[in-house]
Write a structure and sequence with these properties.
Number of helices: 12
Strand content: under 5%
Largest sheet: 2 strands, parallel
Strand order of the largest sheet: 1-4
Shape: globular
Number of domains: 1
Low-confidence stretches: 182-192, 317-321
Number of strands: 4
Distance between the termini: 16 Å
Structural class: mainly alpha
Mean pLDDT: 87
Order of helices and strands: EHHHHHHHEEHHHHHE
Helix content: over 70%
Radius of gyration: 20 Å
Length: 321
Amino acid sequence: MRFPEIKFAGRQIFQFLLGLILSIVFLYLALKGTDWEMVLHYLKKVRIWNLLISLFSLLIHFYIRTIRWKFINGKIGTVTFRTSFTSIMLGYFFNNLLPFRIGEIVKVSVVTGKSKKISFTSGLAALIVERGMDIFTLLLIFTLILPWIKISQTIKEKMIFALYIVIGIFIVLVFLSRKISTDVSEENGGIPAGKLKLFAHGLKSISTFKDFMIVILLSLLLWPFSALYYYFLLIGVGINLPYVVSLLLPIIVGMGIILPSAPGYIGTYEYFILLVLNVYHIEHNQALAAALVIHFWQYLIILIIGIILLMKESLTFRSRS
């Protein structure tokens, strides 16, 4: 499998340094005043059944995400379930290990490398649809659970405002996908047509109402299982909160990790979990234990799956034409 050559510009270096600084700050805030003996005490409470049920929930989340990614790319080319799963998991894997969100490039490259009918530009458009749907459905769920959660009025207003912005962006993307002809012609021995046409081609999964609703439905199905992952690990460290709080956690964490951060979202991930649990008056050391086990267990699962997939794939890099 061939990946595009990755070149680091000055802007990317700045983003990396900014992300590193933010991660250090968030990590400091998360660890400030920690009693590590108490954290260890809470971590010892976690039982194997907590880990196994949360693992099962996370795998279902990955399964639905793979189905959605296959559907989005299937509208612009032929993509197998295996390719979609490999793409998703290697994307997570490299995002956890390398800076600059390189996992997103790897994710698109796996699909375009396996399907000759999908250009890299179309693949990037498909990625925008996928990430956009993540943000849209997280914000939508947030508005639906507002009556049952504790959150400041300022955060409520900002999240709802963000939802309106995302809806506006999707309206533009749908218009673009319909306005520009997506009949991609080939000229000069296989050189694709204009980049704008290729980009619009990658938006085909949201060009009709039916397809748009299918992508939304699959996106909405993701988060209850993600919430279950959080829920059973929270129980593992002795935190018994309503399930709706577990739905709130991936929303706040998901918004938080949009910020630049170190590879694996170290520090950022923990801080935003603590931010939510602090609202519910969970003792700091217990909340930190929850944040650590939630992050580490997910990291380990992705690491193991990623290594297995890497052993089955031949990876090379090439320059993009």
